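Re: duplicated header lines in exported structure tokens

Our pipeline writes sequence and tokens for each protein into one text file. With two proteins the header for the second block appears twice in some exports. Here is an export where it did not happen, for reference. First protein block:
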Amino acid sequence: MKNDTIRSIKLEKHDTKDILDGHINGSLTVIWRDWDKIIKNHPKMIYVSSVNSGEIKGPHTHTRRESYFTCIHGKVIFVIKKPDGTYEEILSSDQNPIMVHVPKNYPSAHMNLSPSVSRILTLADIAWKPNDNEMINVDFDDYDWKKWKNVS
């Protein structure tokens, strides 16, 4: 499996049931299992970040790490700039859990489309250190962020 391709991976979501009467009491979403072969290089760091309503994180480029993002609370649009200058847009939410693979050297950003804080679970194949300097801020000057302003 090549690791230099943007991918959206539909995740398994299962209802969970009460042990006494079997009513649905929640859900379980599988993010990663070592035997799934979804992620070539096993994660070395896992973290949760948040983004406020209507706010954008990024855009920036990670020069050494592969990133796998899943919105676990709220609704987020991931925007990734491809080598040909076009953009790929992938929606992920707690209701529609999609894992977004952003290869190293692909600029990306994400915007919270929810009316409250959204949370993103990230798996990375390289652990971050404060002095890494492997992230480069970039501009998406030709991207229309306004089209997402009234989407929720």
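Second protein block, exported in the same file:
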Amino acid sequence: MDPFLFLSHILTPYRFLLILLTAPTDDAFAALPAGTVESLLLPENKDQLVSILTYHVVAGKVESTDLVNGPVTTVNGADVEINLDDGVKVNDSNVIIADVQACNGVIHVIDAVLLPPMDDGGDAEPDKPSSGDMFSKSGKSKSAKSCSTKSGK
């Protein structure tokens, strides 16, 4: 299974929203215990992989200048903690490259893979964005056009 194709499939419901994606580096993935990535790519672990991937996504285009200290709800439904006291941190990871512009949002590169809080047996399905998720702290709409593919579709 191609993880990039899988991520694209997972994020399909959000293709018309601007999003913030925190993207771990290759070194961040390499720092995971041996076999973790391979295990997550197994079909029986799909729900866990979806939970981790959607924990890296926030509905809305959030640039570094928009960030404030405190919790931010991810597409997963769980919160990440933003801390600006010493650089920019998302939970325990550091933002090492900020504000990489994409056609449907912005990417902040982080130095660790974010792991969501352990599920207490509830629904593993990520939350769908509500209309409230489509607005910035200023109340401006965050809707966006769909990204074009190379073929223009």
